[in-house]
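User: I'm preparing a small set of examples for a lab meeting where we compare how different chains pack in three dimensions. I only have the primary sequence for this one, and I'd like the structure in token form so I can line it up with the others. Please keep the answer compact; I'll paste it straight into my notes.
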Amino acid sequence: MKSIDEQIRIISKGVDEIIGIEDLKNKLEKSQKENKPMVVKLGLDPSAPDIHLGHTVVLRKMKQLQDLGHKVVIIIGDFTGKIGDPTGKFKARKALSTEQVLENAKTYEEQILKVLDKAKTEIVFNSKWLSKLSFEEAISLASTTTVARMLEREDFKKDMKVRLQYHYMNFSTH
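Assistant: Understood. Below is the structure token output for the 174-residue chain.
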């Protein structure tokens, strides 16, 4: 395995900023000390049949991590993909049928493995655990995060601002 400094140099290549660089160094040190690869996860909701060009940026970074000896886990959001979610636009991403999501997931897997090493990539579907949650468990899980905490994320903050402006415009015209 390469030195921590060499791994950081490789991981940093083509990156504007690594948020939590010290945390990353600590995880790399632990990985090296325990002679155990770091596990790096990427979640993708199959909302369309094709991954977009932006995905290749993160997938190439994941490939670098594989080449450094770390394990990559791709989490395909087949459960969450059926629900839809905010995209930062006026409308939420539309919910898809199980068939549409599974069809998209299949093409995602094919496309992802054109970038990542199949032998070093684990692909899992989030329905494996999310579909088993009871309503009580879902509410309990939701209660662990406050709206204030969610709004710390820039994408949620922007989405909420757009939604509030949109609803304000709709309500003020009536």
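A couple of notes for your slides: The longest strand covers residues 39-44. The chain has nine helices and three strands.

User: Perfect, thanks.
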